[in-house]
Design brief:
By secondary structure, the protein is α/β, with parallel strands linked by helices. It contains eleven helices and ten strands. α6 crosses α7 and α10 packs across α11. It is elongated, with a radius of gyration of 24 Å.
Length: about 325
């Protein structure tokens, strides 16, 4: 039997707001409302109701100096980027190896002296064909690991640079326990639910949800921001949804505002405040049909979202 997630017992009460006035983009019908600060707000509504337009195209742009948009879009990076380069601790890993072996840091970069001489640090060799798409094959010399033979002879705690890049975040936390700079970044990845990723996993292979959590990891210790997340629970197991909600709750506790655009009923139940856009999608949407706590929506709401929330609470 599916576990019934209870409605948040003591939602935070908003005391400060930022306003949106006469929003009429796309199907929005001159919406004016106040968005609460320093709490967890969930913006709901059926598909096409206008909730993303309201939050991402209107609110986020009006307050762009304060808003951090955490969506599932591709992270702007090179094809060689990974979680370590994205969070900026790969440089520190190279320093650790260089100091241990008394050699240049560049030996531990596949973009520099440490690159495999055959594939130039790409891990693959590309053959251009006439009238056909290029063919890529794994480099025979480095077996795709991108490093030169010399770079892999140097060790730190019995591990080569490629051994470290193959570690998942949880393993690396123990390995770099004594290095505060690296450990802090790894802990951020662990806290956003990415403990299973390898340090060297290319960003291009991450799912939309993983990219979203990686973006959150960059800001995990920040304060005073307004975070807008677009359906962060897509594809997640119920247990993982609980973890994400706990994470977002901690963001609020640190003095941030969190706004989640979401269909998930369990997420709605854990909100401090709900803004429901509707009453339906397309031309039948674009209006604010409810604002208040999850309990108030269950007790008083007369919307499509309210009906589903009431059923899920039984």
């Amino acid at each position: 039997m599916k576990e019934v997630i209870p409605v948040k017992e003591k939602p935070r009460k908003p005391t400060k707001y930022l306003s949106v006035q006469d929003a009429c983009l796309h199907n929005l019908k001159n919406i004016s409302l106040n968005i609460p600060l320093n709490i967890l707000t969930v913006v709901t509504g059926v598909a096409g109701s206008g909730k993303s337009t309201l939050m991402k195209d209107i609110f986020a742009k009006k307050y762009e100096d304060r808003v951090v948009l955490v969506d599932q879009s591709q992270i702007v990076a090179t094809s060689r980027s990974n979680s370590a380069t994205s969070l900026g601790f790969f440089d520190e890993i190279r320093k650790v190896f260089a100091k241990e072996n008394n050699v240049s840091e560049s030996l531990f970069s596949f973009n520099s002296k440490g690159a495999c001489p055959e594939c130039k640090g790409k891990g693959v060799k590309v053959t251009e064909l006439v009238f056909m798409d290029p063919v890529s094959v794994t480099c025979e010399k480095c077996k795709g690991n991108r490093y030169s033979e010399e770079a892999l002879t140097y060790m730190y705690k019995g591990k080569s640079i490629i051994n470290v890049l193959e570690m998942n975040i949880e393993e690396a936390l123990a390995f770099f326990e004594e290095n505060k700079k690296i450990h802090k970044k790894l802990k951020a990845l662990y806290d956003v639910g990415l403990s299973y990723l390898s340090i060297g996993q290319p960003l291009s292979t991450l799912s939309g949800g993983e990219r979203q959590r990686l973006k959150l990891a960059k800001h995990i210790n920040d304060k005073g921001n307004i975070y807008i997340l677009d359906e962060p629970t897509t594809g997640l197991h119920a247990k993982d949804i609980k973890s994400i909600m706990h994470l977002l709750d901690n963001f609020v506790k640190r003095g941030n505002t969190v706004i989640v655009i979401e269909h998930n009923l369990d997420v709605m139940k854990q909100a401090d405040y709900i803004i429901d856009i509707g009453p339906d999608g397309g031309t039948q949407g674009g209006e604010v049909v409810f604002t208040g706590t999850p309990k108030e929506m269950i007790d008083q709401g007369n919307t499509i979202t309210a009906d589903y929330l009431k059923k899920s609470n039984k």
